[in-house]
Amino acid sequence: PLALGLYTVNAVYGDTITMPCRLEVPDGLMFGKWKYEMPNGSPVFIAFRSSTKKNVQYDDVPDYKDRLSLSENYTLSIKNARISDEKRFVCMLVTEDDVSEEPTIVKVFKQPSQPEILHQADFLETEKLQMLGECVARDSYPEGNVTWYRNGRVLQPVEEVVVINFQKIVDKSTGLFTMTSSLQYVPTKEDANAKFSCIVTYYGPSGQKTIQSEAVVFDVHYPTEKVTIQVLPQSTIKEGDNVTLKCSGNGNPPPREFLFHVPGETEGIRSSDTYIMTDVRRNATGEYKCSLTDKSMMDSTTLTVHYLDLQLTPSGEVTKQIGEALPVSCTISSSRNATVFWIKDNTRMQTSPSFSSLQYQDAGNYICETTLQEVEGLKKRKTLKLIVEGKPQIKMTKKTNTNKMSKTIICHVEGFPKPAVQWTVTGSGSIINKAKETKYVNGKFSSKIVIAPEENVTLTCIAENQLERTVTSLNVSAISIPEYDEPEDRNDDNSEKVNDQAKLIVGIVVGLLLAALVAGVVYWLYVKKSKTASKHVDKDLGNIEENKKLEENNHKSET
Questions:
Q1: pLDDT tens sequence across 282-320
Q2: Which of 303, 327, 354 is the last residue of a domain?
């Protein structure tokens, strides 16, 4: 913000004033200083920071003792802002060759206290100029203005009818203003229930604001000319409320007793100025009258007791089977057009529920709620807790994992109450305890296991709830044989690709078997031929061995 072309800082009384030094730090900076200017223009230095030694010094100025803080970027902070801080402050950056200065204007604002109407008149007399009271707002800065209101409308000065005097007093120790506005007024009988208040207008850092006093009603003395009946509370009435009929005369002092004429009663009921009805019902709707005891003056009013009825069919807790139909109706009877809406599980529905074929996601807590918007607090609601049961339904899928080292078997389960799931291996009957389950949502969840079978196995998924026990089995090949379960939404091209892959694998296996068969036949022929040739060799070798043994025996005999 700028004031007279200068940078201005707006501060709240008692808060901290923060003033940045709006100069670029020059090369060769020796030190920075802050000062403020006296009314006569003379400077008063208050803070010093060296750029080389990084030390901060604060001048001995009593008004700013223990209130200053100078940061490394030469931003000056002043704690506990006072009115006396409204000055022109100057940031100085000093080099060996130059001194740069940048001024900042500080403005301080203080919100006044809530205005009060003091020295109120005990009563007012018609046709006579009287002092109503004084509106006082304290501790404001800068000073504010006071405006008087009658029943929410501004009271403009009128000679010898509305006389307003304003004065302000400043506290020399704090500099804060106290504003006082007195109101002299000539009342009329219409002022019997008039509400007088005052508003103080003041300025804050963000602009003009106002604070209003509590309203005051004065006792006006004048003769009774008219009787008035009033229904309290003045808001709309609903069944169960307590209603007060208040009868008053427009004179003062007012009459002490009245006759209240109530529907269904042939004679007036003698009472003070009020007639109370508790826990009213819709049959209390009608015309009510009051009069002076001599029936010389009378007034009437119509009382309407609003009501709202709601019928929900069915309601409470209802259990149905999946696929069944359930008609639901919410019937309203009211004194005015009512707004009806549905809530399911704390979420407002766009349309009314209709169930031609119940599904698990239809289960939940339903609320039919209706309100009369014109009648505060008049609303009704009824609940329907819908339970959709169903026998367990199972679908099993399988696939070889990408690492080719394991297979994933999934058991997709539907049913309510939530089925318990067990896995078994056909033959051994052992329970597989390493299954993982997904979250149970809308009657559906899945149980998944990961296995690495060395041979073909059959897995069985068992789902059981209070309604039925369902069993489904799935054959799973050994880990060496890949398997794929295609999702239902796969297109035909992908299916053909998978079939082509399967055909390729089968072709490779058949080719390998044929190659092995040919190699076996060749090897068999080779072995047969080799055995025939080796028989002759064995005979020759046998003769040589016999001769060697005979020579050894002869040598032993000689020895």
A1: 999 999 999 988 888 889 999 999 999 999 999 999 999
A2: 303
The pLDDT of residue 528: 60
Burial class for 559, CB neighbours closer than 10 Å (0-12, 13-18, 19+): exposed
CB 199 within 8 A of CB 215: no
**Domain co-membership, 122 together with 190:** yes
Longest pairwise C-alpha distance within the chain: 179
d(CA 257, CA 293): 7
3-class DSSP state for residue 510?
Answer: helix
Looking at the structure, tell me whether residues 55 and 103 fall in a common domain: yes
Domain limit, last residue, from 303, 323, 350: 303
Bond from prior residue into 253 cis (ω within 30 degrees of 0): yes
Residue-level length of the chain: 559
Are the C-beta atoms of 318 and 384 separated by less than 8 Å? yes
Question: Is residue 216 scored above 90 in pLDDT?
Answer: yes
Half-sphere exposure of 526 (CA within 13 A, CB side): 6
* pLDDT tens digits for range 376-393: 888 899 999 999 999 999
Task: State the Cα–Cα distance between residues 109 and 15, nearest whole angstrom.
Answer: 10
User: Based on the structure, what is the number of domains in the chain?
Assistant: 5
**CATH code assigned at 61:** 2.60.40.10
With 60 as the cut, is the pLDDT of residue 557 above it? no
Q: Map residue 382 onto helix, strand or coil.
A: strand
> Which of 458, 459, 457 has its CA nearest to residue 448?
459
Q: What angle do CA 46, 50, 56 make, to 5 degrees?
A: 50
3-state secondary structure of 291: strand
Report the 3 state secondary structure along 117-185. EECCCCCEECCCCEEEEEEEEEEEECCCEEEEEECCEECCCECCCEEEEEEEEECCCCCCEEEEEEEEE
pTM value > 0.70: no
Least confident of 447-451, 484-488, 490-494: 490-494
- Which runs of E-coded beta strand occur in 38-87? 43-50, 56-58, 68-70, 76-78
Q: Is the dihedral of CA 155, 156, 158, 160 positive or negative?
A: positive
Q: For residue 496, give the H/E element and its range.
A: helix 492-558
Phi/psi of residue 377, nearest 5 degrees: 85, 0
* Inter-residue contact 323 to 362 (CB < 8 Å): no
Token pair, residue 360, equals: 């698990």
Strands, DSSP E only, in 354-456? Answer: 364-371, 379-400, 407-416, 420-425, 436-437, 444-451
Four-residue CA torsion sign, 134, 140, 143, 149: negative
- Per the CB < 8 A criterion, the answer to whether 179 and 168 are in contact is yes
